[in-house]
Amino acid sequence: MEIQTDRTLIRPFKKQDLLSLHILHSDPELMQHMPFGQRKNVEKTKQDIENYISFYDKYGFSKMAIIDLSTNDLIGRAGYSYLPESNELELGYLLAKEYQGKGMATEVGKALINYAFNNLKLNRLVAFTSLENFASQRVLEKCGMKFYKIEEIFGMIAKFYEIKNEI
What we know:
By secondary structure, the chain is of the alpha+beta class. It is 32% helix and 32% strand. Helix 1 (18-25) packs across helix 3 (42-59).
């Protein structure tokens, strides 16, 4: 599975992505709103990639690498996670700081929502963000998602958003 937008390629992770992803995962500012926080140890990022690859191999979707088409650099990750508590798929994304504020997260988010509805045949997709992550909340709203609750997940209080397949 690969999804191309105007400026990015969203593709499954490869083991060779480890160092590029670790640069992002080890950035305390970038990871401050993530439930599991900063990855100070490259072994934790290696475990993340192995989990992403294993989940993808088993289910055909997962968190995936975001590649900048103009440079071929890994600039983030985005995709789907399974939330067993609610039996739903969650849309998530993380974008390097230098790529934020340029509409790229919205571009990637919209592409993943489209893929979820048209290819995975989902009726509903959810997302959550920390209460303080206003930029991410704006991205979700620009993607057409609507706020529907505040709830604790993975040890943090989060705002939850949803989008329903109206087709």
